[in-house]
Structure prediction request, 127 residues.
Amino acid sequence: MNKDLENKAEELEQTLSKQLELLKVDSKEWVKIGGLVLAGGLLTYAIIRTSKKKKDRETDRAIEVLEREGLLTKDLEKKLTEPQKSSFWPSLSQRLLILGLAIAKEKLLPNLFNLAKEDEDVQEKSK
Prediction:
């Protein structure tokens, strides 16, 4: 019985070591993927910041020109300096509408043609 327990313990240790090796290999792949995602995110962030700074500089120049010309009003300045708001929900609702139309098309169009054929068959039988 002792030998059986020792054999089982050895088998469990070997299984555990194999699982740990597989985990190490898998984790290397996940680290690579995570690094790529992180690098892509940082690159995107940098691009957005530089484009925002460029837009801010152009807005400042436009405000300066309008001030010199005496055309700058509070309302106009607010429109130029206030960030444009974009929302996630309108695009989501548009996508859901398109998805709903596609599902309806899949469900209704084949049945529509089948119903027309069935109606013709019923009319022919009744004659």
About this structure: The radius of gyration is 34 Å. Helices lie at 2-69, 74-81, 88-126. The first helix runs from residue 2 to 69. The chain has a mean pLDDT of 81.
